[in-house]
Amino acid sequence: MTPLRWGLALSGWAALVVVTFLPDALALRIAVTTAFLLVCPGLAASRWARSGTVRATDRTAVLETVVLTVTVSVSMAVLVVVPLFLSGTFTVTRALLALAAATSVLALAPRPGGHRRGAPGAGPDTGPRTADTGRPEPPASD
């Protein structure tokens, strides 16, 4: 388990502690809560759902990940907050509690498909391979 996954799993609980124990309108409370709400739920969800890794050298892939992360985070926040508002039970603590739990589950859950990325034999069989390189044979041309 990578440190990023553990950091994501604990980020919501850290934000919940900050909201619970720091006074209202404190800059640290606002910064921690905003950072969690905009980044962590979406990053956990997109890491869980994606099959590949993002290379830090590919700027378009990094930008795509940032946009996806913020979009999914805001969407998850809306999906949590709207039912709380409509039921008349909204509090920041309840919303953060729900998002912290969802973020932890998504960060710690194994990826769909039941196999670990990079494990030998984890992927589907791609057909015959050449003996010397281990790479797939090129298609035969007619």
Any overview of this molecule?
The structure is a single chain. By secondary structure, this protein is mainly α. The chain has one domain. The chain is built from 4 helices and no strands. The chain has helices at 3-21, 27-49, 59-87, 92-108. α2 (27-49) packs parallel to α4 and α3 (59-87) crosses α4. The longest helix has 29 residues, at 59-87.
Termini separation comes to 48 Å
Helical element count?
4
Main pleated sheet: none
How big a fraction of the residues is strand? Answer: under 5%
CA gyration radius, whole angstroms = 20 Å
Domain count: 1
Helix content: 55-70%
Strand segment tally = 0
Shape: elongated
Unreliable runs: 119-123
Mean residue pLDDT: 84
Structural class estimated from helices and strands? mainly alpha
SSE topology string: HHHH
Entry keywords:
single chain, mainly alpha
Brief rundown of the structure:
The chain is an all-alpha fold and 142 residues long.
Sequence-ordered SSE layout with sheet pairings:
Elements lengths: L2 H19 L5 H23 L9 H29 L4 H17 L34
